[in-house]
Amino acid sequence: MTISKAAEIEIVSALFLSAAEQMRRTLVRTAFNAVIYEVLDFGISIADAKGRMVAEAAGITSFIGGNDFALKMLMENIDMQALRPGDVVMLNYPYWNSAHLADALLMSPVFIDGSDEIDMFLCVRAHWLDLGAKDAGYVIDSTDVHQEGIIFPGVRVIKEGKLDMDLWRILEVNSRLPEAIRGDFGAQVACLRTGEASVRDIYRKFGRERVLAAIEAFFAHSNEKALEALSKLPKGSWSAIEWLDDDGVTDDKIKMQVNVTITDDKFIVDYNGSDPMVRGPVNVPYGATVSMAKTYFKFLTSADTPSNHGNYLPLEVLADPGNLFHAIYPSATYMPWTHMVAFELIAKALAPVIDWLPAASGGDEPGFMALGAHHKTGKRYVVSNNEGIGWGATYKHDGANCLQHPSTSTVRNTPIEVLERQANLFHEALELIPDSGGRGRYRGGVGVRRQVRAVGDIEIISMKKKSKTGGWGLKGGQPSPVSNRMVFWPGEDREKRVGMYRQHLKDGERFENFSAGGSGWGDPSERDPAATEYDLRNGYITKAEPEIAGNKE
């Protein structure tokens, strides 16, 4: 039986996607901490011998293409000729790794049929709960990378299939949660071994020459489709500015600016108008900046097709070393909220000329982290939750209610059952917030309020960096109210409202977490009265002003 060349290319592409998905399922099924198996805070990819991404599996959205940069830096900075079958390399040096230090990347080379040369690379990155930073949990006020944990700058932790126990003992003794990192390391290695078996099977079925030809063909096809989509976008240059609350060390707001230039064959994203690096841990590794731009470019040009190297060939990302979006040693990078808040900058710049782009979302990932010793078992824990926000409205429909931030849209929040089992937490309320979406012909989605009581002594980290400024509506739509915040001791005389903050609570004390809604699209007076009545019945709004209810005077 023979198949056409076009069909063979599609089959090979699908098999690599299947291999990446099998890696993903192995990781989720075997991971130790809920940030991986519930939240899905990871990134998985397969690359060819040149480090070009062949396929990736769905993890956190902002990791799209992130392993590419990390692999490129490994290829430039370690002795690739020294790698052997069975090796696993660990990287978390943030300036090479496209992420903060807690996101440990494991890379494994694949040698096919006894080859002396590397044929493919497998990569998996995931969030580890503790690597010996100055504080447990998130480090919200570090001023130097060496305060953020132990650094692995591309080190072989497994050599020809055998774990280097000397290195591993160093890693474990530097962690407050050695059992957790041991389990997650094992899950990532299992993920790599699953991928290797799948890749070997593809080569066995088709042979090296046909596999490599198929890879080149679907790279070319993806580039062709990206250029075709690019040709339909408006040409010119546009800019936008947003503000980050502060750097965790001072209270000064930080400017984030993008300039987007679209030509016939290039999509240029320039962050050089942003502030320079700051003292606190909100500086962005350049690889993470590239990944952020890749994600939005993919949305604009090929949202419905699998991701590979060819999709991103027209993209150019500019941020000079020392810029907020190109952190250099020894700057602190632990809090990745900068690229979450900045994620929609490209949309803000292009919305005046691309009608189908949405208004601003709630603009942040306003979650929290809980840590301490369990009140029943005494076991130390770190657990986190990503809070849902309202998404921005579009020219066709209202924004979605209480979803993950667009930069993390493929991940999930942590179930209440997991939070309460692992930490000293008890939920008293979890509800949508009326009137938190911006009004418009189409309303912004609403945010969420969570009320929690401590059932033992606990430390809470409020994680949000857009609690001082709001979003932006489109075509006359209203921005959503500034809502991202946490309130400790709500209703008491000592009530405290915060953005990014650490606070110890005692047994019986409470906190509330609030997330913002999305902004509106279009003149509110043009909203369908039936839609307003629907909002009232479902509690999305508490009242209908005459001009909102379709009765413009």
Walkthrough of the structure:
With 553 residues, the protein is an alpha+beta fold. The chain has two domains: 5-223, no CATH class; 358-553, no CATH class. The chain has twelve helices and 20 strands. Strand 10, helix 8 (286-302) and strand 11 form a beta-alpha-beta unit. Helix 1 crosses helix 7, helix 6 (178-206) crosses helix 7 (208-231) and helix 7 (208-231) crosses helix 8 (286-302). The strands form four sheets. A seven-stranded antiparallel sheet has the order 2-1-5-4-3-6-7, sandwiched between helices. A five-stranded antiparallel sheet has the order 14-15-20-17-18, covered by helices on one side.
List the helices and strands and how they pair.
Elements: H1 5-30, H2 34-37, E1 42-48, E2 53-57, H3 66-77, E3 88-91, H4 94-97, E4 103-110, E5 120-127, E6 153-159, E7 162-163, H5 165-173, H6 178-206, H7 208-231, E8 236-244, E9 254-262, E10 267-270, H8 286-302, E11 315-318, H9 337-341, H10 345-350, E12 367-373, E13 380-385, H11 416-422, E14 425-432, E15 448-454, E16 458-463, E17 485-488, E18 496-498, E19 501-505, E20 510-514, H12 529-538
Parallel strand pairs: 10-11
Antiparallel strand pairs: 1-2, 1-5, 3-4, 3-6, 4-5, 6-7, 8-9, 9-10, 12-13, 12-16, 14-15, 15-20, 16-19, 17-18, 17-20
Helix pairs in contact: 1-6, 1-7, 6-7, 7-8
